[in-house]
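Data availability excerpt. The first of two example chains:
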Amino acid sequence: MLTTVEHPVTLWLSNDIPVRMVYGGQRWRMTDTPTRLRHSIWSAPLEAHHGLYGWRFQGTNDQGTSLVFDVYKGEHGWHVHKSYE
């Protein structure tokens, strides 16, 4: 499953690196090493997201389900841009 809808997320960072988040009413912990993402991967025009950056990481919820997330920091906080099974 792939989603490409931008949803708000609460993201906690440690030393500027994601460590856990709440998304879709579930808690997710990072279960790999997050990768910083730059402008080149975003599908939105650069003018729409000046200064855009984000992260790609695997998150695992309390039930043991793991997904890969692309998240970005927008004007009003963090958002999930895509998630992959």
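And the second chain:
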Amino acid sequence: MSDTFEQVKAVIMDVMKIDGEGITMETRFVEDLKADSMDQFFLIDGFCEKFNMSISDEDARQIRTVGDAVRYIDAHRG
């Protein structure tokens, strides 16, 4: 797995207070991890902080899976 995936997984584990077992690129934030709107906000905020980048609200709405987050971060970080 990519370094970005491991870092994204670490943010998810911290924000959601879960162990990382079972988190894959296909894991969905809402359906699989039961993230509510506040969790989603804190996840996006955590990704922004971890990767020193900003994610617009419009882009954030398109990030629904772990893989979406990894691909977005890889494509947009400097």
